[in-house]
Each structure stands twice: as C-alpha cells, then as structure tokens.
Amino acid sequence: MKRLAVWVCVLALLAPAVAWAHATLKSASPGFGTELAGSPKEIRLGFDQFVKFPSVQVYNAQGKTFAGSAVSSGLSVVAPLRKRLPKGAYTVRWHVLSADGHVVSGVWTFGVKVKAPPPTEAYGASGPTRTEHVVRWLYFLSFALLIGSLGFRLLCLGRRSVPSEVEKRLFALSLIGVIGAIEVGILAFCLRCEDVLQLPFSKYIYGDLTPIADGTRFGQAFIYMTLGFALVAALVYLAWLLERPLLNAPALVLSIALLSGLSVSGHDAVDAGSSKTTELADWVHISAASLWLGGLVALAVAIWPVAPALRRDAFVRFSKLATVLVALVLAAGTYLALVRVPHLRDLWTQSYGEVLLVKISLVALAFAWGGFHRFFVRSRLDAAGSGTLSRVGRSLAGESMVGIAVLLAAAVLVDSKPPPRPASTPVIQAAAQHR
C-alpha cells in the first residue's frame, strides 16, 4: 500500500498539468521602487498575454488620484497622467481581465524627487491588524518550540541515551515548531500582501506579489526563511528516522541563522537610528529568547512528566544555560529599548512604549520565576517528595505560560511603529552625513 501511494505521488508530479495561465506583469514604467528626477507622462504596463478592461490608479500620500482612463492594446496597458506629478511618493494600483477570465491585480510604488516607500507602505495599506498580531505571535512561538527543543536536546541532554518517550516528545515539539515556522510564515506573508493589495481573497490569489516578494526586505527574508526551514524540517525528520540526535545540530545552527531574516527586515534594520549593531542585537535577542523559552517548554513537557530519573540533571543543566540566555536577552533588549525609545516619557505617552512596558513587566515576572527555580528549587530536588515534584512541574508549566505571553507582547511590539526620533539627534545627523 505504501509503495502504491509513493508511485501515485510520483506520477502526479511527473504528469503535465493542463491549465490556462493568467496574465503576468512583465514590465512596468515607472519601475518598481524607482526614484524619478521628474514627473512621468504616463503609466505603462506590459503583460505576457492579451488583457482587457484595464484600470490604473495613481495616488499620492494623501489619496489624490492623477491617472486618466487606461487603455489596453495587445500586451500593453497605458494610463496617461492628467497633470505633472509634484515632488512626493506615489502608489500605482492596477487591475486587468486576463484571458482565463480572472481579474489580475497589483500594486507598486515610485517617487518623484524622493525615495519610493516600500510597497508595504503603499497608499491604502492599513498596517498590521489584530489578526496579524496573533499570526506573528504563533510565528514566534514556532521558533521557540523548534529552537528550544533542539537546543535542549543537544545542550542539556547531550549524547546520552534517553527514554524513547522523551525523544518522541522532543521530536513532536521540534516538528510542530518547524511546520509552524513554514506554514505560519506563509500565512503572515499572505496577510501582509492582502493588506497591501487591499483585495478580497477571491481576487487576491491572482494578485501580482512580485513588488513585495522581490522589492522589500520583508519579502526577500520570507523567501529565504521559508526555503531554509524546509531544509531544517528534513534534518529534524532524518534525526528522528535514523535515530541520530546529532543531526539536530545542523538543524539548530541553521534555524538560529535563519532568525536573522527577522532582524534584517524589521524596525531595527530600516527605521531611523538603525545600524548593523541594532540588527545584531535584535538577532541575539530573538535567538536567546527562543532558546530560553522553548527550552523551558521542553523541560516542562518532555522531561518532567515522563522521565523522573532525568529531572535533576536536566533541571541543573538548563538552569545554567538559562542564566546565560537571560543575560543576553536582558543586554540586547535594554540596548534596543534605548535606541527605539528616545525619551523616557515615550514609555507611557506612545503606544509602542506602552506595549514595551507590558513586555518588560512580563519578562521581569519570568526572570523572577526562573530565579526562584534556580536558587530555591534546584537545591531541594534530591530530597523532594512526589508531591513537591508535581508542584515543581506545575510551576515550570506556569513559567512557560508567562514566556508564551512574553512572545505575544513581542509580536505586538514588532508590528508597532517606534516613536519618531528627534531630527537633531546625533544618530540621525550621522546617518545623513553618510548618505
């Protein structure tokens, strides 16, 4: 039966697919993300097949439109501009009817005597929603489960042979994590693109995502991270299938390296005051937090319920590792907070600062809880009875829940806009001098 299923899959992959392809945008003028010295006279789009009933709109930052009626001619669509475009940033939104009967849509940005904004900041894009906050939280949780379970297996259990139930639970945690990193990442990308295109899903699936996927750090990071985590999934599966835990080592290293995609595409890479140092600090912050919080979940889920003989040793080893990780989280987080929040009052007058205060409070609670485990629980494990050990397990689960809440606050914080930096700050002046 398994062989039959394999051959069915192979034949399905080899069989040619017969389907009408919808029109694809092959060229655009002005180009994606270009900065023009003067106003263009028209907007021109080129496709790989005939299109009909075109609609092209050109918006400035205030939503004023400038395009005249669009006309299709063979593979081209031309929309003249009613007047010269003044200096500023512009958004082009277009729709055409493809030969297969589907409406194809897209959006891109350009600037006249100014730098073009990224497509994610195109006119009409509303920015992150509550749904995106939840998806981002699940994304962070996936990273924590993947990296934490792999790190716990390698750094806290080492090469020792462990009960099969422990291996099974650690594999389940890492599998959930890597699947989440891929699937939730795709969902996050789709939600962001849907917001940019401002289309219902029935039309969004035929949207042109090229300006977002190729023209933004967010899109490029998404592509590399998705492909990279697919390789991580293969390594995790082989480590379990071949019973070779050491194969988790390259999976862990690659996973931590892939987290840099978040750092090079987020606030700490593109906002005012950003630098290579802030990118590095953000990567250290995310990586250390994932190892710490995910390792805590692994200890609570994979060791405490099913492996009494490993409890004390695993607890001690993880406690030592967590001390280092917490120090890295605290150092990197403090530095980033000082960069992102120019004034102390921003902590209670800006929405970004309010979310940051919530995150700091949760992190402080997690630190205190972890400190209690390290300094009061660890020394009493050997003499603890079954009732005490059961309470320790519940306490670990409680600390894990606080860690998950920290990830939720971090997700909202990442999707929030930091307070504007004063134009006179040395950081801004230094950045301007190097342009």
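(the above was protein one; protein two follows)
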Amino acid sequence: MLRVAEQYVGTDTGRQRRANEDSMLARSPLFVVADGMGGAQAGEVASRLAVESFQRGLDDTADAERSLAAYARAANVSIHERSQANAEHAGMGTTLTAVYVGAEEVAIAHVGDSRAYCLRDGELLRLTDDHSLVDELIRQGKLTPEEAVEHPQRSVITRALGPEPEVEIDTRSYRARDGDVYLLCSDGLTTMVPDALLAEILLAHSRLRDAGEALIAAANEAGGRDNITVVLLRVEEVSIAAASLVDDPATLTGIPVLPANGSVEPMALAPSPARAAEDERAVSPRKPRRPSPSTLPPTRRRRLRRVIVAGVVLAVLVLIAAGVYVTAQSVYFIGTNSRGLVTLYSGFPYELPGGLRLYSKDYVSGFAASTLSAQRRKTVLDHSLRSEADAAELLRSLELEELE
C-alpha cells in the first residue's frame, strides 16, 4: 500500500501582483490547490471557499473520485451563492486541482488551469488538461504550444468553480508507484516555467523542499507575472504489516493461524469419561513443572526483573506517546510560514532536538503577517493553543479584515 513519505507546500505573491489569490490545503493524504479570480480581492475569497470545502477530508472506504467531485461541486455552490449575494464578489471564481493518495491509486479532481504532474523514472507526466482557451485551440490543432505561450488570451479559462450554478468536474485515477513525485501548482508556475525546466529542477533536487523553493525562484526569475503556488509530495510503498500499528488480530485473540496451504488437521472428538480415566492411568510420568521465579538462580532473577521493568517502562512510554499524538491532532495555533504568510498549524508549537516538529502545516492564508498592526500581530501570533473551530474562525476574521 502507499503512503506520503515527504511533502512540501509553498506559495509566493510573485513580482507583479500585490495580493495572493491562491489557496492550498496539505493534509496528507489529501492535497488541494486553488487559484482565485475576480475583482476587489474576490479571488482570495473564492479560492479559500474552495479549499475549505475539502477540510473534512475523505473516508478511506469511500470512492475517492466520487468524493472529490462531490466536494468540488459543494465548493462551486458555495462560491456561486456568495457571488450572487454580494456585489463586490460578483463573477468571482477559482480553479481547483485536488489529489488524494489511496492505498494503490492517486485520484484527481480538476477544474481550470491549475495542474497536476507526476515525475516517474526521470520523466515528467502531465496528469490534467487545462480548461483554457489556448489549450482548447491546441487540442483542435488551431494553435501550437509555442504560439500559446505568447497568445494574448492565454489567461482566459473556459471552466471554473463559481461563475455558474453547476460545473463539470474532471476526475481520474492513476496507478501509483513507489518513489513517484506529484506536483500540484497554479498557473503562476507553469506560465513562467516550461515543462522541460520543471522536470530538470525536480530531478536536480533530492529534497522536495529544495525542489519547491527552486521552482518558485525560477518562476520569479522568469518574470513572476502571477501568484505562484507549489505543492509536492513523494509516495512510497509499504507493506500492510509495516503500516499497521498492531499485530495480526487473529494472533492477538488466540485464533490459530492457518498453515500456508490453507488446510488444517481434523479436530479429534473429546474422549468419554471412562476412556479419559484409563488414559490418565496409562499416561507417562508428569513433565517437570516450570520453575517459579523464586527458585531461579540470583543472576537469572535479576535479569528477569530487568526485562519486566524494561517492558513496563516501554509500555508507559508508548501510552504517553499515543496520548501526545492524539492530543496534537486536536489542538491548533496560528503562526507564519517561511514566507511570512499567516498560517494555521495543528499540534504544539515546539521542535524537539534532531529537528522533530510537534506540529504540521494545516492551511496557508493568502496574506502576510506584515499587513497586520503590531498589536494585532502580538495577540494573534502568540502561538496560543486553540480548538480547530476557534482557530479557523480567527483566521477567517483576519481574512475578512484584509478584504475590507
């Protein structure tokens, strides 16, 4: 089965935009990128609403494609209703590319011109088709890829979440392999950096963080005409036994495990009482009893005590670690990421020796902490632990303040 072994999330306003209208979600095994559009910062609202629709995550037993499409349609309804109710948000919309890593396959839901790629065996494979005017013309043979780069209508998209009450969602699934690297990105990257250079940069960096930073830098060096968002994830294959935290439940409950050939010896019937008594008289002398700890030599008794103490200590540590892990999944705090953007984190705001972090990035907003007043920064970015609902509500109020 598959799991996400490494991930990176980064976003940048670019060199020609004043605000960042991109939003993203990286909550393994679910990853989402949305690129908003609309006047008066409405694009930020649209992309945020799209990402929020995926906050609940997917049930492991669900049909991934169907679930992703359902979340996307719910996002479309939410964005469309907001645009109809508020004149400042009229006509707003957003692209969407969502990826879910399942046990064997990667499922994708897609609308617009944000993209998903897979780097496999040194080759970069594009997994989505742009819903844009120039891509439609390329598919019809009326435009070459080279001509599309400088086409005056290259930014016109033909499908997005929000503008219409209903929207068609593209979904598909791909069989994943151990070592695959998946890239989700907004068009602020792909309009600045050609696919060949994307592949070259990914192949040149073994760490996803280094690769992601290099991709954003390349887009800015090429002009940075739009917001740039990059999400990278590497998957690895693990055995079911390694992925499980418990042993085979049949063994734990004392149910005998079947032999490799699947056959078992016939069960003997219980003997009658008379036959049992006769067998008992004919039985061979009893086997010697296992010595009790008190009869063991002193050296073996000390060794046994050490083993028992070590087992108890290990059990206590496991229980403590489990408690910390469970607690960390239910607490949140607000801080900033490496680019100064206000960010929602889950877990505790601490880092242990060896670089072990007790927190993970949950949601990256589209505005920088520098836009807040000094007093506001002091009260918001104090790393106070909050519930998910309280932290999300605070972050939402900050985003609304930015739009005023």
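Reviewer note on protein two: The longest helix spans residues 298-328.
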